[in-house]
């Protein structure tokens, strides 16, 4: 897979953000409570920054270990740790684990994380990324993780959702000012 040109990548990222804002503003399944939709004028994002598109080396877990993740509202959620991504970010060696629900064989990989913006510039419960591998991942593969695509879970918008919280093994010790910022629903 060839990397998109910087201008092309940024334009696509901005298009995705516009589509998401439209969905959140108008769709019946939007996580924005109906009473806040009229005032909703789009999510708040960090500026697109190619520094937060990182090359990561993959380790595949052939016998995935089950992990229970606490949730914001309800019983723990059970996931399988299926892969580990090792990468360098802002001069630090980092690792994030990717998960899949036991029944979600064809689902994208779920990569929840916290970083040094969590609870300050980004949602206090952490943020998510999804990773859709092109084909079967193998040990030693190199993939691109794009933190510009990091998003807040639905529970950041409404307490009616139960969202998995990133396990401690996915807490990064670096500042990642990329992706979605803390949602502002005008209720402060």
From TrEMBL:
Composition skew (Basic and acidic residues), residue ranges: 11-25
Comp. bias (Acidic residues): 1-10
UniProt region (Disordered), positions on chain: 1-48
Record PANTHER family: DUF1684 DOMAIN-CONTAINING PROTEIN
Protein name per Swiss-Prot or TrEMBL: DUF1684 domain-containing protein
